[in-house]
Write a structure and sequence with these properties.
Length: 127
Amino acid sequence: MIYIVLLIIVALIFAWFASRSKPDEIVEETREVPDDCCGAHEVCEADSLLNSSDNIEYYDDEELDRFKGKDADQYNDAEIEEFRDILYTLKEREVANWIKSIQLRNIKLPTIIREEALMIVEERRAS
């Protein structure tokens, strides 16, 4: 009889320690995305953690400033190619910062270019 009581006590102690060592449930935090977000807010937020300055950095792309305020779906093929030429001359590690720079300059990337840029960033993070 005493062995059964001891066994129950040991089991309760073991269960208590096991439950304390489990990590607390992770609660996902929901954040609102600002209306002026470029659609790359995950990238921008990650860069903000690494680089807290909001200084605009140019990547030999000053000519893109003429697109300030233009909607992402209003670009013609020649303008899209202009963005693409700049994107593919960047080093992979520069793409995320370029997206942030474009956003700080109030330039909305053409949708297809934004998708290509985000794909490059995701591939870089995966490797």
